[in-house]
UniProtKB/TrEMBL annotation:
Family according to the record: Belongs to the HEBP family.
UniProt organism field: Rhodamnia argentea
Record Gene3D superfamilies: Regulatory factor, effector binding domain
SUPFAM superfamilies on file: Probable bacterial effector-binding domain
Superkingdom of origin: Eukaryota
Record-linked Pfam families: SOUL (PF04832)
Gene: LOC115742005
The name this protein goes by in its record: Heme-binding-like protein At3g10130, chloroplastic
InterPro entries membership: Reg_factor_effector_dom_sf, SOUL_heme-bd
């Protein structure tokens, strides 16, 4: 019942709030270990969240864990997604503004439980699409919102957050990501979503 009503009862990344204002927060996140998969929606019949089943398989959320131990890994929140433009003729991911040529790639990331202090301590994925790596900590501007976090809504929140950060003298140091804390069956007004932008 708690998941339907938006209660977050799983482990979340550790951070310190450096500044809180009416519009957003500045947070410093601790380093973490993540499992991620990069794909195009066309690989999953147009579904932008198609990578979720790949990562859920790795941790064992949908049955037997698809890792070399095999070890069931606790689910955490949030699920983090990032969109990037890739050129049709190149096999590498290149960042660029929406609307350019090519197809948009999505990178979906699970933050693994804090007990995995380094990437090599986490179980090795059996699916070669899953990459386990260490994510540096750092400073982020963060805006929280409820409802359904569509791509359009997230982009609008990111544009507004960027404007606020630049207005207040913060230097943006990378692209925005979307963090969703609840499963799809959570009542939309009770969902917790965040847009995060790295800053110097």
């Amino acid at each position: 019942m708690g998941m339907i009503l938006g209660k977050i009862s799983v482990e979340t990344p550790k951070y310190q709030v450096l500044r809180s204002c009416a519009d957003y927060e500045i947070r410093h996140y601790a380093p973490s270990v993540v499992a991620e998969v990069t794909y195009t929606p066309s690989q999953f019949n147009g579904r932008r969240d198609g990578g979720f089943s790949v990562l859920a398989g790795y941790i064992g959320a949908l049955g037997d864990p698809q890792n070399a131990k095999p070890e069931k890994i606790a689910m955490t929140a949030p699920v983090i997604t990032k969109s990037e433009r890739i050129a049709m003729t190149a096999p590498v991911i290149t960042q660029g503004p929406p609307g350019g040529g090519g197809e948009e790639a999505v990178t979906m990331r699970f933050v693994l439980p804090a007990k995995y202090g380094r990437a090599e301590e986490a179980p090795t994925p059996l699916d070669e699409r899953v990459v386990v790596r260490e994510e540096e900590g750092g400073k982020y501007g963060v805006v929280r919102f409820s409802g359904v976090a569509t791509e359009r809504v997230a982009r609008e929140k990111a544009e507004r957050l960027r404007e606020w950060l630049e207005r207040d003298g913060h230097k943006v140091a990378g692209e925005w990501v979307l963090a969703r804390y609840n499963p799809p069956w959570t009542v939309p007004p009770l969902r917790t979503n965040e847009v995060m932008i790295p800053i110097e």
